[in-house]
Amino acid sequence: MSTTFPATTDLCDAHESRLADGSLRVLPPLFQRFGKRAGFYGPAVTLKVFEDNALVRSTLETPGAGQVLVIDGGASLRCALVGGQLGVLAEKNAWAGIVVNGCIRDSVEIDACDIGVRALALSPRRAAKKGVGERNVPVTIAESIVEPGNWIYVDADGILVSRVELAQ
Questions:
Q1: Which residue among 22, 54, 120, 122 has the highest number of C-beta atoms inside a 10 angstrom radius?
Q2: Whole-angstrom Cα distance, residue 70 to residue 48?
Q3: Helix (H/G/I), strand (E/B), else coil: 101
Q4: Can you tell me the distance from the alpha carbon of 132 to that of 55, in angstroms, rounded to the nearest whole number?
């Protein structure tokens, strides 16, 4: 996606009817900001994993084409699902950003990458690499369902999930 994007506040103002009917949702303000991009947006690719990031790596190894990787890590704070190497991989393969319902690590390395990342917290512990998880399934992030292909809009004010691409 382009580097310019609509502000989440403007999208909320312009799409109040979508907020009312639930086709546009605001995620709770639980996420910390990492990476060089203060804001990003794109269609969602979803992963459902728990304390295992092998599927995260294999997904980020594919062309991102401006998509946003949304990882439901079960809100686990025991280990990190994304680290510096995966941040570099996401940047190299043109992912717009990553939203992690869980932890990341190597925050200094991720902050040097030209991507946007939102995560609940930091953990120095690495995840298992067994390959357990599901790709492109509905996931639950902060009590909100995100489906593959939903549009994710992220900036300093928050994270939006929309069933459709919103006019800028």
A1: 120
A2: 9
A3: strand
A4: 7
Residue (of 116, 161, 138, 160) closest to 48 by Cα position: 138
Amino acid letter, 103: C
User: What is the enclosing helix (H) or strand (E) of 164?
Assistant: none
Structure tokens at 164: 């459709």
Supply φ then ψ for residue 59, to 5 degrees.
-70, -45
pLDDT, residue 168, reads 63
Residue indicated by tokens 């998509």:
67
Q: State the pLDDT at residue 116.
A: 97
All residue ranges of the chain with pLDDT < 50 are 1-2
Q: Rounded to an integer, what distance in angstroms lies between the CA atom of residue 104 and that of residue 7? A: 25
* Calpha distance 76→50 (Å, rounded): 7
- Assessment of whether the complete model's pTM goes beyond 0.70: yes
Q: Tell me which CATH code domain 8-18+34-161 carries.
A: 3.50.30.40
